[in-house]
Design goal:
By secondary structure, the protein is of the alpha/beta class. 34% of the residues lie in helices and 18% in strands. The chain has one domain: Response regulator (Rossmann fold, 3-Layer(aba) Sandwich), CATH 3.40.50.
């Protein structure tokens, strides 16, 4: 059973993550502002924080960096972060913010659950759906064909 903190001001994001966890006995808390993550973590450190990059007022990158800075100063324990990204280009931001994993939207329950499980087990999760598809041209027929 895990304690999951979701930070998003988009209700559908919270509902999508909750749906991915619905078959388990995980405890889910949510906040609607990035600035509310630090106090929520200080009050009761979650097993994982799922942070939407586009949360209003204090974005996901700033929120994740704040957690890492407080952890580095010894004021908070390490909280694994799964960041929810809007586009492929945001992967750079997730890496810069030292997120433990990321998913590129649109979300689906199976990928969300897989990512949360990987990060909770001490690993990382890098959503490969952000990688562009490489098209290999077919070989030209040889004269013998």
């Amino acid at each position: 059973m895990a304690d999951v903190l979701i930070a998003s001001d988009a209700r559908w994001v919270v509902e999508e993550v909750e749906a991915a966890l619905s078959s388990s006995e995980d405890t889910v808390r949510d906040v609607t502002r990035g600035a509310d993550v630090l106090p929520a973590v200080a009050e009761r450190a979650p097993d994982i924080a799922v942070i939407d990059l586009q949360i209003g007022r204090m974005g996901g990158m700033a929120t994740c960096l704040e957690l890492r800075l407080e952890e580095g100063a010894g004021r908070l324990p390490h909280v694994p972060v799964l960041m929810l990204l809007d586009r492929r280009a945001d992967v750079f931001l997730a890496r810069r913010a030292q997120a433990d994993g990321w998913l590129v939207k649109p979300l689906d329950a199976m990928r969300v659950r897989r990512a949360i499980t990987a990060v909770l087990n001490g690993g990382t999760y890098e959503d490969d759906s952000y990688r562009p598809v490489t098209v290999v041209p077919a070989a030209a027929p040889t004269p013998e064909q």
